[in-house]
Amino acid sequence: MKQRTNLTILDRINEFKRIEVARRRQQTSLEALRDTAGYGRRCVSLADAIRGSKHYGIIAEFKRKSPSQQDINVAADPSAITAAYANGGAAGISCLTDQEFFGAQPDDIDRVRAAVTLPVIRKDFTIDRYQIHEAKAMGADAILLIAASLSAGEIDEFAAEANEIGLEVLCEIHNEEEAAKLSPEVNVVGVNNRNLKDFTVSISNSIQLVELLPPSLVRISESGIDDPQSVARLRREGYDGFLIGTHFMRQADPGRALRDFIAKVGEIEELYDGAIA
Ligand SMILES: O=P(O)(O)OC[C@@H](O)[C@@H](O)c1c[nH]c2ccccc12
């Protein structure tokens, strides 16, 4: 038998999710989810927002705490912060909805939805198709699929089901083996710089994997980005966007931090363009 001590954090979260999903399904049926106002809402395209961004395609994340960073900003208000992210130049919003490990509250997406018109990613650990419909009912525009947790068949199936109800899919990979699981149903591919098994972070992971990413997909680099220089570098490698949470959430004014960050990327790119002109 597999020993509990050998389970990674991702295994533990996914195990918890199976119980959570079973409980939620008892409380609210799929049919009831389909009757919600959120479910009837027309989604905004995340891929288009990243591609069309004039501010480097930054998806700013709302996150109170995490297993790797512990408390980040536990008293944070989702409406105020994401409205400030929108004003600061975000291309999209990522909002954690896991309560147990990430400290989310049940109405977080509602509050984000009320505050912004940007595309919103429901950031959770999707291991069951029920969660796809739940994301739609919550008013999200896109869901996250973590390749480390799913088979190639599940990624394809879940992504197709999400697309069918208007949701886009961000599929997250961390290595070559996971890159091979990408499906044509996926809209955005994210290379995670953080290893979800041991929490080590390395931006060079995005640099190494970029050549394996299908050119048709919008590409983003995720996690551990805290320096405008890294964004400028990764853009030269072919990344269209960036998912950044902790660096902004830790600051007194996350919206302003995003605005300043974007301005610095601009300065770096100007210098770079000047140097090669
Ligand atoms: O806070 P950071 O290091 O800027 O990272 C944001 C985002 O990439 C990270 O929260 C994340 C990436 N993949 C995930 C999967 C589940 C939960 C969270 C994540």
UniProtKB/TrEMBL annotation:
Its EC number is 4.1.1.48. Pathway: Amino-acid biosynthesis; L-tryptophan biosynthesis; L-tryptophan from chorismate: step 4/5. SUPFAM superfamilies: Ribulose-phoshate binding barrel (SSF51366). Pfam families: IGPS. Residues 10-260 form the Indole-3-glycerol phosphate synthase domain. It comes from the Bacteria. Keywords: Amino-acid biosynthesis, Aromatic amino acid biosynthesis, Decarboxylase, Lyase, Tryptophan biosynthesis. InterPro entries: Aldolase_TIM (IPR013785), Indole-3-glycerol_P_synth (IPR045186), Indole-3-glycerol_P_synth_dom (IPR013798), Indole-3-GlycerolPSynthase_CS (IPR001468), RibuloseP-bd_barrel (IPR011060). One of its GO terms (molecular function) is indole-3-glycerol-phosphate synthase activity. It catalyses: 1-(2-carboxyphenylamino)-1-deoxy-D-ribulose 5-phosphate + H(+) = (1S,2R)-1-C-(indol-3-yl)glycerol 3-phosphate + CO2 + H2O. This is indole-3-glycerol-phosphate synthase. It comes from Neolewinella antarctica.
